[in-house]
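Input (structure):
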């Protein structure tokens, strides 16, 4: 097994990325269409987050998986996927009040239709905007783990993942999919009718989780400065791609950018401090809970003394969210409240 160490740089990066995801969804809901932040955060920087999350999850999972010990490897994969499923189920239940509120304020009040849509969303996407990551991660880890345990070489997994990711980027974005032959467009529409999205564990998560597998098993080292330079280069190229192709969900250049960001962050060797694992918890609380703070702001906006400007909205939404996440991370460190860690 691989030597155990703390990856403090990854904890910091994950916390930053989680805030970017929360900011992205906040901007999509509350900011005007002409706001520059819709491009800078909503379409650009926030698209680095989920790829980095996938790579990080794959890395830590496959550090525990050794093909020379197949039973232990399968156990690690199954246990991890079981934990992700329980987390998805738990947060789906916690968001049921929001789902109900959205339904009673929606146009279609038919209960039977709502139940069918909910079940379809639960299995193939998610019922709440950010939770789709959990079933995608579950599926990606099962697929990559099963193939790896059956003896498939990592380079073959990466090749398959690259093809699937490229197909997902094309299918997810109108700029590309409208240029497909009509038969493929019809096939894509049929797929989306039942499976709803290509941002899932097959077309999105599998590739990045497999990158995490590569990082976990390779002996090659990428220097921090080379990875840092690559992060800057590919992040700038992401902006060009987004402007050119209006590609705001699955972005081709997010792959090399996320690869370099993970490589750089994993090479950081800061002194171990209590702060870093706490930030790890903060990132998870932020990612999973942030939609509730949007509704809290909407419910209290008429009494909110802070002006409803872009800065005012950001303060009103993000400040209580971060305070809550920090408090939960701190409280859960105490033996009496360790049960709170079941929520992240």
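Output (sequence):
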């Amino acid at each position: 097994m691989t030597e155990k160490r703390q990856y403090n740089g990854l904890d910091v990066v994950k916390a930053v990325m989680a805030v970017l995801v929360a900011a992205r969804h906040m901007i999509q809901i509350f900011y005007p269409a002409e706001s520059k932040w819709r491009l800078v955060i909503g379409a650009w920087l926030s698209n680095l987050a989920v790829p980095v999350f996938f790579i990080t999850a794959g890395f830590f999972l496959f550090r525990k998986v050794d093909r020379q010990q197949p039973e232990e490897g399968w156990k690690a994969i199954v246990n991890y996927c079981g934990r992700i499923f329980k987390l998805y189920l738990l947060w789906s239940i916690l968001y049921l009040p929001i789902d109900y509120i959205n339904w009673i304020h929606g146009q279609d009040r038919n209960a039977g239709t709502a139940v069918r849509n909910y079940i379809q969303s639960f299995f193939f996407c998610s019922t709440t905007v950010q939770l789709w990551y959990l079933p995608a991660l579950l599926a990606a880890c099962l697929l990559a783990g099963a193939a790896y345990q059956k003896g498939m070489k990592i380079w073959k997994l990466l090749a398959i993942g690259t093809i699937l990711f490229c197909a997902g980027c094309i299918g997810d974005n109108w700029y590309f999919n409208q240029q497909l032959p009509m038969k493929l467009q019809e096939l894509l529409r049929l797929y989306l009718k039942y499976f709803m999205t290509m941002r899932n564990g097959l077309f999105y998560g599998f590739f990045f989780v497999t990158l995490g597998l590569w990082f976990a098993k390779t002996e090659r080292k990428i220097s921090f400065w080379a990875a840092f330079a690559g992060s800057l280069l590919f992040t700038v190229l992401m902006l060009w791609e987004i402007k050119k192709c209006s590609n705001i969900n699955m972005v081709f250049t997010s792959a090399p950018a996320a690869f370099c960001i993970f490589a750089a962050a994993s090479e950081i060797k800061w002194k171990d401090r209590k702060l870093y694992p706490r930030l790890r918890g903060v990132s998870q609380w932020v990612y999973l809970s942030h939609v509730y703070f949007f509704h809290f702001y909407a419910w209290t906006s008429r009494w909110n003394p802070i002006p409803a400007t872009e800065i005012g909205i950001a303060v009103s939404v993000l400040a209580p969210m971060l305070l809550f996440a920090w408090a939960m991370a701190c409280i859960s460190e105490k033996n009496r409240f360790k049960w709170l860690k079941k929520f992240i």
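Notes: The chain has one domain: 8-343. The chain has a mean pLDDT of 94.
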